[in-house]
Amino acid sequence: MSSQPEVFLNGEFLPLAEAKISVLDRGFLFADGVYEVIPAYAGKLFRLQQHLERLNNSLAAIRMPPVMNEQQWTEVLNRLLQTHSQSDQSVYIQVSRGAANTRDHQLPSEYQPTIFAMCQSIANDNLAHIAKGVHAITLDDIRWDWCHIKSVALLGNILLKQQAADQQCGEAILLRDGYANEGSASNLFIVKNKQLITPPKSHNLLPGITRDLVLELASADGVDCIEAEISEQQLGTADEIWLTSSTKEIMPVIKLNRQIVGNGQPGELWQRMAKRYSEFKTDLRKQAHV
Ligand SMILES: Cc1ncc(COP(=O)(O)O)c(C=O)c1O
What we know:
Elements: E1 6-9, E2 12-15, H1 26-30, E3 33-41, E4 44-45, H2 48-61, H3 70-81, E5 88-96, E6 114-121, H4 124-130, E7 134-140, H5 155-166, E8 171-176, E9 179-183, E10 186-192, E11 195-198, H6 209-220, E12 224-227, E13 230-231, H7 232-236, E14 240-245, E15 249-256, E16 259-260, H8 268-288
Parallel strand pairs: 7-8, 7-15, 11-12
Antiparallel strand pairs: 1-2, 1-6, 3-4, 3-5, 5-6, 8-9, 9-10, 9-13, 10-11, 10-14, 14-15, 15-16
C-alpha cells in the first residue's frame, strides 16, 4: 500500500502523486475555478452546509452549476478524513471548468469540470502562536471587484500577503476608498467601546464562514454586534482588531502599521470569544464520538 496521502480527483480516490490533470485545464490556464477550505475536528466537518452553499454560490457566480450534491460531498470528504479521525484537518476543495481542446478565453459550451479534494493537518502549534497576537499592515486593495467569489485567482491576495510578510507582519488589512474591508485571507472585526463591528457582506469581501460563527457566538454571549463600514480612521483607533478565517480562527492584531493596538496584548473581548470558539470546537469533536 502507498504511504502517499489519498486525494479525490474526478470521481476517483488515488495517491496524491498519481492525481494528474491536463495542462489545458482552465483552472491552470485562466484560474477559471473556485475553491473551499473546510476544517474538520476529530473527523467532524465544520459548518459543511454553509461551506457547500458558498461553493455553489461561487460556482453560480462564474456560470457553473453545482457539481455534486451535499450527500455526495459528504461521502467524499468523510472518506478522505477517515484515516485522520484523531487530528484536526483542513479539507481543500477545488472545482475548475475542466480542460478544453484549445486555449480559448470564451467559455466552452460543453465541458467536464475538474473536481479535486484533499486534506491536510491544521497546525495547532501555529494556532497557539497566533493567539499571542499578530502584527498587521494596511495596504490598498489591488484585487478585482468580485471579492465575494472564492476564486482560485489569488495572485492579488498572495502578493498583498507577501508585502505584509516582507515587513514581518502576519496579515495585510485591505483598504478601498478609505474603508477597511477584510484581510488578504481573513475577515475583519474591530472592537470600539465594547461594541463589535464587522463590515457588511458585499462584493468587497469574502462572506467568511468563521465571520458568521463569530457574530453568532458573540451575539449569543450578549455582545453588542453591528455590521457597519469601518473607516481607516476607525481602524486606527480601535480598542481591538481581529482577523478571522477557518484555519486561523480568531487572530488578535496587537500592532497595526507598527503602532500598538489597545494595550498591545490580545484584548479582553478577544479572550472571551476565543474561549467560546474553542468550546464550539470541543462540542463538534464530541459529536464526532456519539
Ligand atoms: C479573502 C478572504 N477573506 C476571508 C476569508 C475567511 O473565510 P472563512 O472564514 O470562510 O475561512 C478568507 C479565507 O481564506 C479569505 O481568503
